[in-house]
Design goal:
Radius of gyration: 24 Å
Bound molecules: ligand PMT
Number of domains: 2
Oligomer: single chain
Structural class: alpha/beta
Strand content: 15-25%
Distance between the termini: 47 Å
Helix content: 25-40%
Strand order of the largest sheet: 12-11-8-13-16-17-18-19
Shape: globular
């Protein structure tokens, strides 16, 4: 059955050029069986008329906070109670900032504040406005408050520029909104994934790196998002496009990856380390390009931080899934890493020419304390879904066990 069928979807429309897509969005939602009501800001009405949205939704459109026609003149409370989910699309930078502040000075802001149903926003703005630290900080706050941030997409914009900030297309928004009701295996969980290689600079033009393409980590990030998780992907330099439902943080060196992970780890439920992090970096980085020398050169290397070990050693660590890339003694080496880093699980793969790194296929042996599961050679996209299903199961098992232990501790206190 369609998960949107019969659901009450409250659509908030704010004042951006993407408001014209709201008409199509209402149509898509209704096509999936949703009952749609629309709340518009004053600015939104400059871009599309309430009459259009009223005709398409079959419901009166609301925009006044103090509407004497509403029962007991408390329209915002009634609308908030009516909604099974609230989607603001488009959500302008200004509206996002106001949402962060918890304002209630117009009907839409007041409904968002009063609504206990899942809230989703579909940002739409110029790419420079999107990239501003103020906007990014605001979005980070919203995510931390479990607001679902859908998109934006990257592409050509109404202002003539190209970049991130386009509102997702109505059919994509409809699909993602339906996902909120699907209750996937990782629904409501926050997952942080590392992927790709790191680059450790030697001089302004040279670096030490490895063959990781990011394919395995990106496939895992996508599979986790498909399973309902809110996913952040910290990625080294790769030639892949970020999956649309995933927040990406681009880094280059191991130290940058370490810093990005530590910054986002606090509200993470599950950490997956698929990146091939360079274990060492040059002790010093030459400011100018090193000259060729007939005598050869010696590079002094120093160790990089072990990101996975640092996460697992936190006082309240998330559930940790590490990887082990091995050329020999796969099980022994993987189990050693599982114990040494105090991980919940480790996924081991054989690497070498044409294996593990770069290629589209892979095979995994997954180990945890007291168990093991093998996944045979298949596409990394499929393998990622199999791994995420196992991870969700192991995570739930640990979660349930911890809850029982806490209950016992409470009873005997
Ligand atoms: O990117 P692809 O081309 O698709 O290739 C996929 C892959 C082979 C890179 C991937 O499947 C994989 O094995 N990733 C982990 C590679 C690795 O660095 O393994 P390791 O055994 O050296 O490290 C053990 C674990 O510690 C890994 O989870 C690694 O992310 C983590 N680590 C290692 C060093 C470090 N300084 N910090 C870390 O977090």
């Amino acid at each position: 059955m369609n998960t949107l069928s019969g659901k009450h979807i409250l659509l908030g429309v704010t004042g951006g050029i993407a408001a014209y897509k709201s008409a199509e969005l209402v149509r898509c939602l209704r096509k999936q069986g949703a009952v749609v009501r629309v709340v518009m800001t004053t600015a939104a009405q400059e871009f599309i008329t309430p009459l259009t949205l009223q005709a398409l939704s079959g419901q009166p459109v609301c925009s006044d906070l103090l509407d004497p026609r509403s029962e007991a003149a408390m329209g915002h409370i009634e609308l908030a109670r009516w909604a099974d989910a609230l989607l603001v699309a488009p959500a302008t930078a200004d509206f996002i900032a106001r949402l962060v502040q918890g304002r209630a000075d117009d009907l839409l802001a007041a409904v968002c504040l009063a609504c206990e149903a899942p809230l989703a926003v579909a940002p739409a703005m110029n790419r420079a406005m999107w990239q501003q630290p103020a906007t990014q900080d605001n979005l980070a706050l919203l995510r931390a408050r479990r607001v679902n941030v859908l998109g934006p997409a990257t592409g050509s914009q109404a202002c003539g520029e190209t970049g991130p900030g386009r509102m997702l297309e109505p059919d994509e928004l409809t699909r993602l909104l339906a996902g909120l009701f699907q209750g996937g295996a990782l629904a409501g969980r926050r997952v942080l994934v590392t992927a790709g290689p790191t680059r450790e600079p030697i001089d302004p033009v040279r670096y030490i790196s490895n063959r990781s393409s990011g394919k395995m980590g990106y496939a895992i990030a996508r599979a986790a998002a498909e399973a309902g998780a809110q996913v952040t992907l910290v990625t080294g330099p790769v030639a892949l496009v970020l999956p649309e439902q995933v927040d990406g943080i681009l880094v280059e060196t191991a130290e940058q990856m370490h810093a990005a992970v530590m910054e986002h780890i606090a509200d993470t439920d599950i950490f997956i380390a698929a990146a091939a992090v360079a274990d060492y970096r040059p002790q010093s980085v030459a400011r100018k390009k090193l000259k060729k020398s007939a005598a050869g050169i010696t590079l002094a290397l120093e160790p990089n931080p072990d990101i996975l070990a640092a996460v697992a050693a936190l006082p309240e660590p998330p559930f940790t899934l590490g990887f082990a890339a091995e050329t020999d003694a796969l099980e022994a080496n993987a189990r050693k890493k599982l114990r040494a880093k105090s991980l919940d699980m480790i996924a081991a793969n054989v690497v070498g020419p044409g294996r593990g790194f770069e290629v589209d296929d892979n095979a995994l042996r997954v180990f945890w304390d007291g168990g093991e599961q093998q996944f045979g050679q298949t596409r990394k996209t499929r393998l990622a879904r199999q791994l995420v299903a196992l991870l969700a199961h192991r995570y739930q098992t640990k979660f349930d066990k911890d809850r029982v232990i806490k209950l016992h501790a409470k009873d005997s206190a």
